[in-house]
């Protein structure tokens, strides 16, 4: 793996971690107690949509 490819992989990973941190800290996604899979999936989509609107 070359330096350029490694840099791309690291930047991509950081972008994903940044999104997860925002979901956890801003929207408290980790504290969700939903047990229904459909409700959890729908709320996760809604949280990501809200986060994108906020940006």
Automatic annotation (TrEMBL):
PANTHER family linked to this entry: H REPEAT-ASSOCIATED PREDICTED TRANSPOSASE, PROTEIN YBFL-RELATED
Protein name per the record: Transposase IS4-like domain-containing protein
Species of the source: Blastopirellula retiformator
InterPro entries referenced in this protein's UniProt entry, alphabetically: Transposase_11-like (IPR051698)
